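Quarterly update from the structural biology core.
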Amino acid sequence: MNKLNPSNLALVTALVVAPAAHASYYQTNCANADASTRMNNGHSDNTLSVTREAWGDEGPTRTVIKLDPDEVKVEMLDANVLFSEVHDSCAENPGRGSGFWSRREVKTYRLRLTKEDGSRFDEQILGAKADGSIESFLICEENWSGIVPSCR
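Predicted structure, tokenized:
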């Protein structure tokens, strides 16, 4: 009886599993008008950052601060879809063996950030409010895509 060595087993597994695999991608990138508040989410980047502006003798100095998502409550309010498009090659070219789909949306949100522990954000952070929260209006671009292994 022949045994499969590990490299042959890996090759056989890849040949069996690969045809059923669904490659996909998702990424959202958001920023306010002066990019002092940014929020990114998806396969490439997952960051939330704000900007502290301090004034000195030489004028303003801006420092970008990455926030820990476990320490910040994020509220996305007042969503508005400005643009949306979808492409589906299976629908556009029926009868093909496989296909590709993509979706792109541009949205606006009113973002509100508060600290989970109830403390206040530094008043030098751009967008900081008197109650210690941060509020900003963001424009976001959301992108999704994927492979359809079998158009039916």
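The CA atoms of residues 98 and 150 lie 5 Å apart.
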